[in-house]
Design goal:
Blueprint (H helix, E strand, L loop, with lengths): L1 E7 L4 E8 L4 E5 L6 H11 L2 E6 L5 H4 L2 H8 L2 E5 L3 H5 L21 E3 L4 E4 L2 E7 L8 E5 L4 E5 L2 E2 L2 E2 L9 H12 L7 E4 L5 E2 H7 L6
Parallel strand pairs: 3-4, 4-5, 5-6, 10-13
Antiparallel strand pairs: 1-2, 2-3, 7-8, 8-9, 9-10, 11-12, 13-14
Cofactor: Zn(2+)
GO molecular function: hydrolase activity; metal ion binding
Protein name: MBL fold metallo-hydrolase
C-alpha cells in the first residue's frame, strides 16, 4: 500500500490517497477542495480504481470536493453519524466560509462507529471515534501498517480546535488518550493538517496532551 499525502484546498487540508497497484484499487481519505486534480493522475499512473472515500469528519475543508469525487469515481462514502448534519446540510458552515466557497450535500453509504472493523485494499481497518474537535471525528487505523489517519483530533505538537459548534476540549483530550495514545508508539499519525508524527512522539512531547 502506498500512502500519497495530498494537501489541497484553501487551508491546505490533507487528503490521503491509499493505492494498491497489485489489486488495482485505491481509497481516498477526506476530500478537500481541488483534490481530484491530484488524485486522478495517480489513479491513471498506478492503474487503480477509487473504490471508497472515507471522511474523518464533516467540517467544510474535509468535504468540499466529496460530491465531485463521488461523481467522478463512483466511490462509496463512509462517515460517522454524529456529523450527519454537516454532511446533509453543509450550508450551516457558511458563516465560516468565503462567499467564493460552495459546498454540496454528500450522501453517506456506510455509517461507521467506534470499534467497527472492515477490509480495504486487502487489509484490516479499525474505526476509532475521537470526538471533541467535532462530534463525528473518527480515525482509520491500519494496525498491520502501523498507520492511523486521525482527521483534526491530533496534530504534530498540537490538537484540534474545540471552539467550533459541537467542540469540547475535555472530550477531545480524553478521546486522544483513550483512542490514539493506546495505539503502539511506533504508529504513524497522519493528521488533517501539517506533517505526520507518531504516537510515541506526541505522548512524550505534545504540550496539550501528554500520554
Amino acid at each position: 500500500m502506498i500512502i500519497h499525502t495530498l494537501p489541497a484546498g484553501p487551508i491546505e487540508t490533507n487528503g490521503f490517497l491509499l493505492t494498491d497497484a497489485a489489486r488495482g484499487e485505491a481509497v481516498l481519505i477526506d476530500a478537500p477542495g481541488g483534490i481530484w486534480a491530484f488524485v486522478e493522475p495517480i489513479l491513471i499512473r498506478e492503474k487503480c480504481r477509487l473504490t471508497e472515500l472515507w471522511l474523518t469528519h464533516g467540517h467544510w475543508d474535509h468535504i468540499q470536493d466529496a460530491a465531485k469525487v463521488v461523481r467522478a469515481s463512483g466511490a462509496k462514502v463512509r462517515g460517522h453519524l454524529a456529523d450527519r448534519t454537516f454532511f446533509d446540510t453543509p450550508e450551516i458552515m457558511s458563516a465560516f466560509l468565503s462567499s467564493r466557497i460552495t459546498l454540496e450535500k454528500i450522501a453517506i453509504d456506510h455509517w461507521v462507529a467506534q470499534g467497527d472493523r472492515f477490509e480495504a485494499l486487502g487489509r484490516s481497518v479499525e474505526v476509532r471515534h475521537v470526538p471533541g474537535h467535532c462530534p463525528g471525528n473518527v480515525l482509520f487505523y491500519f494496525a498491520d501498517e502501523c498507520a492511523a489517519f486521525v482527521g483534526d483530533a491530533l496534530f504534530a505538537g498540537s490538537v484540534g480546535r474545540t471552539d467550533l459548534p459541537g467542540g469540547s476540549r475535555e472530550q477531545l483530550l480524553a478521546a486522544i488518550r483513550a483512542q490514539i495514545y493506546t495505539m503502539p508508539d511506533a504508529t504513524t499519525v497522519y493528521p488533517g493538517h501539517g506533517p505526520s508524527t507518531s504516537v510515541g512522539v506526541e505522548k512524550r512531547s505534545n504540550p496539550y496532551v501528554r500520554g
